[in-house]
Amino acid sequence: MRRNIAGSSPFEPIIGFSRAVVVGDHVHVSGTGPVGAEPADVETQTRHALSIIRTSLEKAGARLEDVVRTRMYLTNVEDWETVGRVHGEFFGSIRPAATMVVVAALLNPSWRIEIEADAVAGSAPKN
Description:
Number of strands: 6
Radius of gyration: 14 Å
Number of domains: 1
Number of helices: 3
Helix content: 25-40%
CATH architecture: 2-Layer Sandwich
Distance between the termini: 29 Å
Shape: globular
Order of helices and strands: EHEEHEHEE
Largest sheet: 6 strands, mixed
CATH superfamily: RutC-like
């Protein structure tokens, strides 16, 4: 059974996408830009995007600890270390499969980062 999770992006109804889609115990979180943190530096934008992802996962019945894959899209290659450090703060002990790609542009020209995540709800070790 499929369940769509709405977010707060103004682009969801225009483009026709969900913040996340749940199928069984799999949660697929859409590319998440730093909506609301556009004027900030890449560190702040990355934290903001990951916070949006965390909230989406929780709405879907999952946690950051359940994330098995992330994809990070950067507009500036020079940002990779900062983005990687923040990613490590969120996922350092979780260690999902991760990809970091430099792209020419993102949907909003002021975004320096966009992140996707896939999770399997309940897959994290219990504390």
